[in-house]
Each structure stands twice: as structure tokens, then as C-alpha cells.
């Protein structure tokens, strides 16, 4: 039986195959078990001899199966290791990195500049009520100045904020002076789109409120921003303007010496002024207290796309929002 079994065990090439052979010999209905069952028919002496012989066969068969099983398991392991071997000399897969959008980078730069001047960076909501977008900023519904902001109206009477200025009223309603904040964010206008106008664009609002704030604080602050954005030789100039929420109001331009082109010019960036006393009155009404009575403050607002277009020579505002990698990739890495 041993030789017979050996002939079958030796060529077995898999564990299931070996198991089948094992059942054939050692299973409940196997050949050896059948032999053991015949022991009962023998005389006690013969049974002893035959029993001992069969036990030896059983032990030998078990050893044969165990050895073969080990051999097959080792072979399987070897094969698995060989198939999973790692070729450390193969070149790796290039790791694709993304980058921040140019507008995000400019917003971050502005936030860093203003944080250095002790400002908090806060954000407002893009869907606004008429109250905060207009009325609280001294632009009641009958006021012709509403036409300055072509507005997207929602069916429920709310608006997509036309500027970041509503956060002036919201912040003052919620917090007491003195404070300094900047508010970067998206703004919307129902305007014909062209190379310098988009229906959605970004602004940065600034507001500082305290007892002794003057227009020269405003100028100094804008000048710090200009130097941070356009270098130490940059400066700011005011031009009289009109906004219902500031009095006096001034548009501001920034002087920039472009090192790349060697050109120097004045660039209009945005509007500013001293917070109108009526805005403080509206805020007192919202708060139902007099904390803002007698306060003074300055405010300003500028277009982020405008800064980006000027500084990096982007000729058309629409490029920022077309997600064309040929454009976006030009503004990765060091921009200086
Ligand atoms: C003025 C005085 C303050 O005390 C505070 C804020 C302001 C700014 C005011 N809220 C405002 O929105 N003025 S603005 O209509 O002249 O817009 C400011 C800047 O946003 C512009 O100088 C321009 O750079 C940008 N802008 C306006 N409409 C735009 C636009 N950028 C792209 N597309 C448009 N459609």
C-alpha cells in the first residue's frame, strides 16, 4: 500500500489533489480504514501482528502526506513571493501636484499684509438681504445710487451681494468698536461681461472703527497695502468720489514701478472714505443701542481681479474663470 500511495503522492501538484489522495487512503471510507475494519475477524494473535503492521503503515502514510503537504506549501509560497517581487530600479509614477489659483494667492497675500497691520480677516455671505446690501449702507430703495450696483435679485427679494460692503453693517451689528477687519470674497453684478467686467468677481473690503480714526490713517493703511503688493516704491493717491456710505469719499490709485517692463504708472484700484454718520446710525438701529454713536472709521473696497490683471499682465478677466491649465500653470511657483 505504501508504494502504491507513494506513486500517487509524489506527482501531486496541489494541496486539493493531495487531500483527495489522503482521503482515498486515510479517510473514513479509505483503503487503510477498510483494512483496519477486518482486524475484528482475525484471531487475537493474528490481530496483534496485523494490527501492529497496519499501524506502522498508517504512521508512514501520515508522514508521507505531511512531507508532501509541506513541500507543496513551500512551493506555493515561493511562487507567491516571486510573483510579488518588487523591482526597485523601475522609475516611479510622477506625482501630479495642483496649485493655488492666482486670485487665491492674491487674497492670501492681502490677508497676510493686513494681518501684519493688526486686522482680522472675516468672511460674509454671498446671498444677502436688501437691508445689509443697501439700506444699512445708507442706500434706501428710492436712492438713485442703487443704480451704481446692477443687481441680481432672487425671487424671495434677497440679492447676490453686489459688493463686500454689507459685512460692514453685519460686523458692526455683531461686535463693538474698536476693531479693524478685512473681508475678502465673491461679489456679483448683473453686468455685460467684457475684458474687464465679470458677473462674478472678488473684492476685498476694509473697515476700521475707533474713536480717533482719520483720513490719514486710511491713506497710510492703503499705502502699506500698496507697498506690500507692488514694492517699497509704491504710493497711493486719492481722487474725490461718491459713495453713499462714506463721507468724504475717495477713489484711490496706486503708483507702481514695474521692474519687468521698466514702466511706472498710476492704477485705479477701488473706492474708500470715512464711514458716513448715517451708517453708524443705521447700525445703532440694528443693535438697539448707542455703541456706535460718535464713532469714527474708514472703509475701503477694491477689486481683486483688477490687482491680478495689473500685476501679472493678464489681459482679460475671463481667463481667471475658464480653468484653462495653460493660463493657470503660468501662476504656479514663485511669482516674483
Ligand atoms: C467704496 C467705499 C467704501 O467705503 C468701501 C467700499 C467701497 C467699494 C464699493 N463697495 C464698490 O463696490 N465700489 S465699485 O463698484 O467701484 O467696485 C470696486 C471695485 O470692484 C472696482 O474698482 C473694480 O476693481 C471692481 N469691480 C467692480 N465691478 C466689477 C469689478 N471687477 C470685475 N468685474 C466687475 N463687473
Provide a brief overview of the structure.
The chain is built from eleven helices and nine strands. With 336 residues, the protein is of the alpha+beta class. The longest helix has 40 residues, at 44-83.
Architecture blueprint of SSEs:
Layout: H1 2-9, H2 15-26, H3 31-37, H4 44-83, H5 102-116, E1 120-121, E2 127-128, H6 130-133, E3 159-160, H7 166-174, E4 179-188, E5 200-210, H8 215-230, E6 235-243, E7 246-257, E8 264-275, H9 277-287, E9 296-303, H10 304-312, H11 325-328
Parallel strand pairs: 1-4
Antiparallel strand pairs: 2-3, 4-5, 5-9, 6-7, 7-8, 8-9
Helix pairs in contact: 1-4, 2-4, 5-8, 5-10, 7-9
The site of 5'-O-[N-(L-tyrosyl)sulfamoyl]adenosine (YSA) has 24 residues, from strand 5, strand 8, strand 9 and helix 10.
Structural account:
The protein is of the alpha+beta class and 336 residues long. The chain has two domains: 2-84, no CATH class; 102-331, Bira Bifunctional Protein, Domain 2 (BirA Bifunctional Protein, domain 2, 2-Layer Sandwich). Helix content is 40%, strand content 20%. It has helices at 2-9, 15-26, 31-37, 44-83, 102-116, 130-133, 166-174, 215-230, 277-287, 304-312, 325-328, and strands spanning 120-121, 127-128, 159-160, 179-188, 200-210, 235-243, 246-257, 264-275, 296-303. The strands form two sheets. A seven-stranded mixed β-sheet has the order 1-4-5-9-8-7-6. Strands 2-3 form a two-stranded antiparallel sheet. Strand 6 and strand 7 form a beta hairpin. Helix 7 crosses helix 9 (277-287). The structure holds 5'-O-[N-(L-tyrosyl)sulfamoyl]adenosine (YSA). 5'-O-[N-(L-tyrosyl)sulfamoyl]adenosine binds next to strand 5, strand 8, strand 9 and helix 10.
Amino acid at each position: 500500500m505504501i508504494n502504491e500511495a507513494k506513486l500517487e503522492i509524489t506527482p501531486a501538484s496541489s494541496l486539493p489533489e493531495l487531500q483527495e489522495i489522503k482521503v482515498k487512503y486515510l479517510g473514513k471510507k479509505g483503503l487503510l480504514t477498510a483494512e483496519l475494519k477486518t482486524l475484528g475477524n482475525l484471531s487475537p494473535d493474528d490481530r496483534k501482528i496485523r494490527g501492529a503492521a497496519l499501524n506502522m503503515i498508517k504512521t508512514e502514510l501520515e508522514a508521507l502526506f505531511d512531507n508532501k503537504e509541506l513541500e507543496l506549501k513551500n512551493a506555493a509560497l515561493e511562487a507567491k513571493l516571486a510573483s510579488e517581487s518588487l523591482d526597485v530600479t523601475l522609475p516611479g509614477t510622477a506625482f501630479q501636484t495642483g496649485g493655488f489659483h492666482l486670485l487665491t494667492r492674491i487674497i492670501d497675500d492681502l490677508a497676510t499684509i493686513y494681518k501684519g497691520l493688526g486686522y482680522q480677516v472675516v468672511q460674509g455671505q454671498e446671498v444677502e438681504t436688501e437691508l445689509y446690501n443697501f439700506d444699512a449702507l445708507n442706500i434706501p430703495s428710492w436712492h438713485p445710487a442703487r443704480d451704481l450696483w446692477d443687481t441680481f435679485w432672487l425671487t424671495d427679494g434677497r440679492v447676490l451681494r453686489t459688493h463686500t460692503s454689507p459685512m460692514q453693517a453685519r460686523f458692526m451689528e455683531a461686535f463693538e468698536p474698536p476693531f479693524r477687519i478685512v473681508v475678502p470674497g465673491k461679489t456679483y453684478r448683473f453686468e455685460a461681461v467684457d475684458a474687464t467686467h465679470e458677473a462674478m468677481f472678488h473684492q476685498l473690503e476694509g473697515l476700521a472703527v475707533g474713536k480717533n480714526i482719520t483720513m490719514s490713517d486710511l491713506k497710510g493703511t492703503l499705502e502699506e497695502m500698496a507697498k506690500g503688493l507692488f514694492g517699497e516704491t509704491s504710493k497711493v493717491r486719492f481722487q474725490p468720489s461718491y459713495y453713499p456710505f462714506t463721507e468724504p469719499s475717495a477713489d484711490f490709485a496706486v503708483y507702481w514701478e514695474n521692474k519687468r517692463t521698466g514702466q511706472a504708472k498710476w492704477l485705479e484700484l477701488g473706492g474708500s472714505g470715512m464711514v458716513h454718520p448715517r451708517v453708524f446710525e443705521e447700525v445703532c438701529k440694528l443693535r438697539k443701542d448707542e455703541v456706535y454713536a460718535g464713532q469714527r472709521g474708514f472703509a475701503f473696497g477694491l477689486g481683486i481681479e483688477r490687482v491680478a490683471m495689473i500685476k501679472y499682465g493678464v489681459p482679460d478677466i475671463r481667463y481667471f474663470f475658464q480653468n484653462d491649465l495653460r493660463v493657470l500653470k503660468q501662476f504656479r511657483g514663485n511669482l516674483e
